[in-house]
Amino acid sequence: xxxxxxxxxxxxxxxxERRRPERxxxxxxxxxxxxxxxxxxxxxxFASYGRAPDDRDWTYLFSEQPTNIGLFREYxxxxxxxxxxxxxxxVDGESHTAVGTAALMRIEPxxxxxxxxxxxxxPLLKNTRAGTEAMYLLMRHVFDELGYRRYxxxxxxxxxxxxxxxxxxxFRFEGIFRNAIVYKQRSRDTAWFSIIDEEWPRxxxxxxxxxxxxxxxxxxxxxxxxxxxxDSI
Length: 233
Prior knowledge:
Blueprint: E1 26-27, E2 31-35, H1 38-49, H2 69-81, E3 86-92, E4 98-108, E5 113-121, H3 129-145, E6 150-156, H4 160-169, E7 172-183, E8 186-196, H5 200-211, H6 226-231
Parallel strand pairs: 5-6
Antiparallel strand pairs: 1-2, 2-3, 3-4, 4-5, 6-8, 7-8
Helix pairs in contact: 1-2, 3-5
């Protein structure tokens, strides 16, 4: 309560503006997350995305899938030039090949809020340890190294796989913003999800437990689901 008897939010007397994420690589056990670089990643990403039988993975992205390497290089050059969103390539730890991208975006250092988005996993990255680890590495960077308070996930409310992924990673659903965006000449209702700093220690422990090598059999299949790891903490 303030002096007028009005309810107000908790005091944050030691809070200070956070720094912005920099163009630095993050190494994990199964993958490396590194800033998008046109000459380093263009050919590998184009080939990786080309393994999909069609372009359905791009339906809910703001861009259409480039149909040739020339157009893809133009697309990737635009990603490389952007500071917000700050785009990263996800490089598989075994093949050392770029197999997907993701971005930190809507970066608000004053409030300690950042969003992960523009996530494009190729067939080589979907349903893999590397894909989950990439999401963990970005979260860890935001919370532990940059000290942000809130980590957001937003997607088209009709994008069922994205909504499911957010929940699997531990994001909490916050609601639907109706008629929030116009993209690709259609309306989008946006589903909002978030993780806040007080939730992060438990989620971090669950990710670390899930990513341990002994959690996978010889074929790479998980022994315990990520949700099960969270429930055990």
